[in-house]
Design brief:
Blueprint (H helix, E strand, L loop, with lengths): L17 H16 L27 E5 L3 E3 L5 H18 L2 E3 L21 H7 L3 E10 L2 E10 L4 E10 L10
Parallel strand pairs: 1-3, 1-4, 2-4
Antiparallel strand pairs: 4-5, 5-6
């Protein structure tokens, strides 16, 4: 599944320093503790300065995964529920985006049709979610097709779309 990902504003993007940043920090730490730059603090009064390293300010995002809507001939309620569970498990495993508990939903948990029908972003904001995952499941010949749309709740606009096609006898692996 390919999602078109727009730029995330700086306040929501976790900062990562990478190898170059780590190298620079190590170099600064080395220079700061080097005898060439050391200051005699034996006559200083008061508490010694301390360096506190705290985890970054990145925020874990939440996503409400709605029950996908069946379109056309039935693919089975159990298959749709299994698909939803798999998506939520995948999100939880990533630890970047966590699924919102179903008990926190303040809007309908059944996905609307993906024909451009708007969702109630205000209710989802009150639910405490950052994104809503909508979807449709349909039969295509001997296979099952899943179409997905992700909505950014803060902006109330589409964040990305994707689809997957797979054999109906199993929910994974999906052909992409």
């Amino acid at each position: 599944m390919k999602l078109a990902v727009p730029a995330i504003d700086e306040e929501r993007r976790p900062r990562r320093i990478g190898l170059v940043g780590l190298f620079c920090l190590a170099l600064i730490a080395f220079l700061a503790t080097s005898p060439l730059f050391a200051k005699d603090i034996s006559k200083e009064r008061g508490p010694l300065p301390t360096l506190e390293i705290a985890p970054g300010g990145s925020k874990t995002l939440t996503a409400a995964v709605l029950r996908f809507r069946a379109v056309g001939p039935s693919v089975g309620d159990k298959r749709i529920e299994t698909l939803r569970d798999e998506i939520e498990r995948g999100l939880a495993f990533s630890s970047e985006v966590l699924p919102l508990s179903h008990s926190a939903y303040l809007a309908d948990e059944l996905s609307p049709l993906l024909d451009g029908t708007a969702i109630d972003c205000d209710s989802w904001k009150q639910s405490g979610t950052d994104a809503v995952v909508l979807g449709e499941v349909r039969r295509e010949g001997s296979q099952v097709r899943v179409d997905i749309r992700v909505v950014d709740v803060a902006r109330c606009q589409e964040f990305g779309t994707g689809n997957a096609v797979g054999e109906p006898s199993r929910t994974r692996p999906w052909k992409r």
